[in-house]
Amino acid sequence: MGKINVLGTEVYNRIAAGEVVDGPYSVVKELVENSLDAGATEIEICIDNAGKTRIMVSDNGSGIEKDDLPKAFLPHATSKISSASDLDLITTLGFRGEALPSIASVSVTEIVSAVKNDEGYSITAEGQNIGMVSPCAAKKGTSVTVKSLFYNTPVRARFLRADKKEEADVTAMVTRFILGNPDVSFCYIVDGRLKLTSYGEGLEEAVAGVYGADTVSNCFNINAEKNNIRVRGYIGSQNYFKPNKTYESVYLNGRWVNNSCISTAMSCAYQYYAMKRQYPFYVLFVDVPADFVDVNVHPNKSDVRFVDTNLIFSTVYKIVSSILDGTTAAADFVVDTKRSPAVKSTYKDSPLPAVFGGKAELSEKKFTEIYENKTEIPVFREGKTSKPEEGASNLLYKSPPPSYPNDENYLSSEGKDEISDEIDTREREEQRSFILDTRKYVGALFNTFLIFEVGDEAFLIDQHAAHERLLFDEYSEKIAKRTITRQCMLVPYVFNVTPGESQFLSEKLPLLSDMGFSVELFGDSAFRVYEVPQDLQSIDLKCFFDELLSGMGELKNVTLTDILRDKIAMTACKHAIKGGNILTDAEIENLFSLLKGDMGLKCPHGRPICVKLTKTQLEKMFKRVV
Predict the structure, then answer these.
(1) Cβ neighbours of residue 391 closer than 8 Å, sequence gap 6 or more
(2) Cα(485)–Cα(477) distance, rounded to whole angstroms?
(3) Of all helices (H) and strands (E), which one includes residue 280?
(4) Which in 370, 481, 577, 603 has the greatest CB count within 10 A?
(5) What is the H or E stretch that residue 213 is in?
(6) What is the pLDDT of residues 11-48, one digit of tens each?
(7) Element (H, E) at 13
């Protein structure tokens, strides 16, 4: 007897649902895409209980004919394509014919629709049971209601997250549709309450509605065409950045995509202007010929493949970088130069450094290294046109972790303890005591490195790095042990957030309260800070919350010290004695005593405070021993 089974409709619809219907947000995605493909100019989205109980999407599109209603629930039934050759020229958002059958297989789904000059009809599908078509009152367009999502697949239902998280995903999806379809009016209602609305009055209105009116004034409105590729939308100025990547939106031929080729091109264009943990803002539309792109890559259609990725990369990069760099070509790409943001040049007195190998554009070889081989993007330090210093970090967006050298040139008391748990605590304490008791100050090298002799070993201490670490520990301890006293703000600080950021901050409100901040949700897409810790009342709240939101994918049980680490390190650096300062004998003695013999410490930026040279090493340098 044969072992190969031909799966029935119920089975393969369930399998398809596993890929297409990931959660409530994916149901909203598929239904809204169907509405847009039907030519709708008004779309209403309603969800209850984060979409778990009910999802309804209504539109004023072309509607579904009475005879086609039963076919809507059949697998691979679609009005978008009719033959295999159509796959090469896809212009609609949907085309597989999987969405409605997949949704219906794991829910109770009802369609009510009417075409122009005809009465309305409804049909309901529950699992695999498709009901009869019935006449009903309906206006032109279609309304799809999905109830009891995953009611017949309890395992999938258990994987649904908390309501706030599922709702945040749906809200993020609706936001994408508002930005990607600025000529369509959207109304988004959550549990009977209006959450988002747009009036279909263009991209400027959509961007201002989602991100706030001040966003538009900080962006370039661009419309460029190059190599038969059109690039348009809003891109942030050289001084306008966000704390994470949730403010980056790309629409390819009207479809939202998460494409590494385009995002890498944008990162390259902004690389000379962005500081650490800063990300550009953009709502970018890229239009290419239909036969230049393959959208049939994955069921959720969130990524695409290009016939020539190098051409896409270089085109997007050249257009955006020319605008940011202020070249003569920028005048042809910016829509309204009079309304362009006022920008402070980062490189006031010097030209922008050459990008790669002295060329201000990407070669095919360099593109292959960056995009296809996934290497890091080189970046130079601000104000320098030469290559980075030897050994310096040259990675964009990624700060190298503190190194813990396992080298004989470094004292291995605390340093090696951080990379190995095998060092005995008692031995370390004895070693520190020995250094404190037997050290002999020899002198200073370049008024920067203090030289101490301990037996047959010499220690070179960087006076700035050592003092910086001591101050950092002192400030951190004060922050950790501080008494919280709140200071009411005369004018509260209000800032806008994305749906993902809103959900993240809502979870962190107890933590912020413990730190001494009084923060509350202010409307649907903003937060209000009305009290701050008294000892931090001069803090830059924008920088503080940008720092907090920049790590929202990583932060779990964080403390105030964790969040303020960079600021504490900067303060310590500013107040520490500098290299070149001449210290008195008393200051040298005090600094060494404060170190308590711990020569393995590192400054807050990861540099060692001390290097050890043995007598044997020095003798080898002078060829006294072999």
Answers:
(1) none
(2) 17
(3) strand 279-280
(4) 603
(5) helix 213-217
(6) 545 545 545 688 999 999 999 999 999 899 999 999 99
(7) helix 9-20
Q: Compute the distance between CA of residue 499 and CA of residue 521 in angstroms, rounded to an integer.
A: 12
Contact between residue 113 and residue 64 where contact means Cβ atoms under 8 Å apart:
yes
CA distance linking residue 511 with residue 545, whole number of Å: 13
Three-state DSSP at 112 gives strand
Plot region of 610 (φ>0 → left; ψ -120 to 50 → alpha; else → beta): beta
Q: What is the pLDDT of residue 409?
A: 43
Residue type, 477: E
How far is the C-alpha of 449 from the C-alpha of 440, rounded, in Å? 14
221: which 2 tokens? 């409105």
Q: Note the residue count of the chain.
A: 626
Q: Is 182 helix (H, G, I), strand (E, B) or coil?
A: coil
Strands (E) located in 200-276: 219-226, 229-236, 241-242, 248-252, 255-257
Residue type, 514: D
Specify the residue for token string 């609706």. 174
Residues of the chain with pLDDT > 70, as a percent, come to: 76
d(CA 146, CA 143) in angstroms, rounded, equals 10
- Supply the pLDDT for residue 201: 93
Q: Are 565 and 604 contacting, i.e. CB atoms less than 8 angstroms apart?
A: yes
The SS3 of residue 589 is helix
At CA 544, angle to CA 540 and CA 549, rounded to 5?
150
Residue ranges for the chain with pLDDT beneath 50: 12, 15, 18, 80-91, 94-96, 345-362, 374-423
Tokens 């016939």 belong to residue: 307
166, 50 Cβ separation under 8 angstroms: yes
* Three-state DSSP class for residue 244: coil
CA dihedral (13, 16, 18, 21) positive or negative: negative
Handedness of CA 614, 617, 621, 625 (dihedral sign): positive
Indicate the DSSP class of residue 577.
P
- The pLDDT assigned to 414 comes to 46
Q: Could you give the 3-state DSSP secondary structure of residue 483?
A: coil
How confident is the model at residue 554, as a pLDDT? 58
d(CA 130, CA 610): 76
Instruction: Name the residue among 242, 319, 243 with its Cα closest to residue 281.
Output: 242
Place of tokens 């290009």: 306
DSSP states of 371-408:
IIS-PPPB-PPTT--SPPPTT---BSS-PPPPP----T
